[in-house]
Design goal:
By secondary structure, the protein is α+β, with helices and mostly antiparallel strands. It folds into 2 domains: about 180 residues, Orthogonal Bundle (Triger factor/SurA peptide-binding fold); about 100 residues, Chitinase A, domain 3 (Roll). The strands form 2 sheets. It has a 4-stranded antiparallel sheet, sandwiched between helices. It is globular. The relative contact order is 0.17.
Length: about 350
């Protein structure tokens, strides 16, 4: 069954670390919430600065910077030449609120004696490794983000506990009446249609620090050589991606699946949508580096009947309404806890 990718991604409550670690190297990211501007020239916060107290336990700036280190692309924003105090504090405030909510939900999960099975753990863990081809490659990717496999395992255990708690205590008992499902479908038919999408592969040579002409030229030279190989008759694009690409999609032959308009950064999207079936793009520069893109399949827009999407509408409405219940629960936990934000 075809599922509109525009809403299928929202059907499962995200596992925090997995979502951030496995984000592809071409997709746009949401900006963190604003914080009050700092005076120009203001010094950065010391790592030992207490950003918040939760039930008397301190959360320091160093804790937040470690949390942010788990998010792809954030290291450059924190420590790059264009980084500012205001930018760093925006990121830290976003990480702080996420960490407080997550820690409170974890405590609630343990209070409710929530647990997961070894089979459930292995399924998610092996699925994570599978995206990189092997545990060694996954470990190398984590190392580049300042994390170890043990760090990942601890984060995964935390996320599984929180998600099990949310599923059992909130999502499980939540029921959506049939009339609400049909009303939602009738009011949002376009939303439940399959939009035009492209199935693409890419090869990425990273060039995240584009302030350095030497690094940019080096990445450009590499991608040009790979492009020459990719456009030769009989060339295996997937094999070249496995060998040369610096994106986590490399073990899968550079496969990014179906992308819709608005999901990837503009230079990538413009180049991809200009391709004919089977065609390979010239090198394209984005904020991630240089890409070569291959179009494998083009999916036309199509309206889906109610019965085909009813189950997914139910899951989506449960997600939305459950999300509001989770927000209310977190607000209650915050109110019951002694939370003092100092950032």
């Amino acid at each position: 069954m075809l599922i509109p990718s525009s809403f299928s991604r929202s059907l499962v409550l995200p596992i925090t670390l997995l979502f951030t670690l496995l984000a592809p190297c071409a997709f746009a990211e949401e900006a963190p919430p604003p914080v009050p501007a700092q005076p120009q020239g203001a010094p950065d916060l010391a790592p030992t600065t207490v950003a918040a107290l939760v039930n008397g336990a301190p959360i320091t700036v160093a804790d937040l910077d470690r949390e942010l280190g788990k998010r792809p692309g954030v290291t450059q924003m924190l420590h790059g030449p264009n980084s500012t105090v205001e930018m760093r504090n925006k990121l830290r405030l976003s990480a702080l609120n996420s960490k407080i909510d997550r820690d409170l939900l974890l405590k609630e999960s343990k209070s409710n004696q929530v647990s997961f099975t070894e089979e459930e753990y292995k399924k998610v863990y092996q699925g994570s490794i599978g995206k990189f081809g092997s545990e060694d490659k996954f470990a190398e990717f984590l190392k580049g983000m300042g994390l170890s496999l043990d760090d990942f395992r601890r984060e995964l255990e935390t996320d599984l506990l929180i998600n099990k708690y949310i599923q059992s205590s909130i999502m499980g008992p939540l029921k959506i009446p049939d009339e609400d499902l049909k009303k939602n479908y009738d009011s949002n038919k376009q939303q439940y249609a399959l939009r035009e999408a492209l199935k693409v592969r890419h090869i990425l040579i990273k060039a995240e620090d584009q302030t350095s002409p030497q690094l940019l030229k080096s990445a450009e030279d590499k991608i040009k050589k790979i492009h020459e190989m990719a456009v030769k008759p009989g060339a295996d694009f997937a094999a070249l991606a496995k060998e040369h690409s610096q994106c986590p999609s490399a073990p899968n032959g550079g496969d990014l699946g179906f992308i819709e308009k608005g999901q990837t950064v503009a230079p990538f999207e413009d180049a991809a949508y200009a391709l004919k079936l089977g065609e390979i793009s010239n090198p394209v520069l984005s904020q991630f580096g240089y890409h070569i893109i291959k179009l494998d399949e083009r999916r036309e827009a199509k309206e889906l009947p109610y019965e085909e999407v009813k189950g997914f509408i139910e899951q989506r409405l449960k997600q939305e309404r459950g999300g509001e219940i989770v927000k209310t629960k977190v607000a209650e936990l915050r109110k019951a806890a002694a939370v003092e934000i100092k950032l």
